[in-house]
Amino acid sequence: SQQGEEDPQALSIQEGENATMNCSYKTSINNLQWYRQNSGRGLVHLILIRSNEREKHSGRLRVTLDTSKKSSSLLITASRAADTASYFCATTTSSGSARQLTFGSGTQLTVLP
Amino acid sequence: EAGVAQSPRYKIIEKRQSVAFWCNPISGHATLYWYQQILGQGPKLLIQFQNNGVVDDSQLPKDRFSAERLKGVDSTLKIQPAKLEDSAVYLCASSPGTLQFFGPGTRLTVL
Question: In the CATH hierarchy, which top-level class contains the domain B5-110?
Fold first, then answer.
């Protein structure tokens, strides 16, 4: 079963607006990662946040992690049409095999020009 | 640096036929993964290799799926016989450590 669940399932915004996607998970984690997947392509790693971190930035990306609520959010600021893709959170867990990712169901982001 | 290579990119077969996918990981990456991604869902791990040994194949349907990684480099994933529910994208990923690098995937359609 999927460890993470993203919310919303789909999001449509105008270029220049900010996009926020949320991820909830069930068990204790070592780290949480966000990936992007363009249509028909493989996944590209965006950012990793460790369980002892609360916030991380990378360019236009901001990720937060709340381990007490078992949730994370990905914020994309000043969105561009090229940001149109599916976004997945993925966790590595304390009890799972080392370096195994468990993915959520994804958020489909559409950025309208 | 070359990325993870997969072939074929697309495959259409009829149910009960066999199919094989190939993956060439990034040079030097010891860990290799195969994932199944059904339309509208996130990838699900099928099998994990460390060099040429299997680390975890608990989610691999072993009655019809098999995978090998000869010489700890390239890997093949086989389905025999295929079922309609095997229609999905099969992703290969390799890793030197924490991060995983994904190939473009093979889209399988079973008719």
Answer: mainly beta
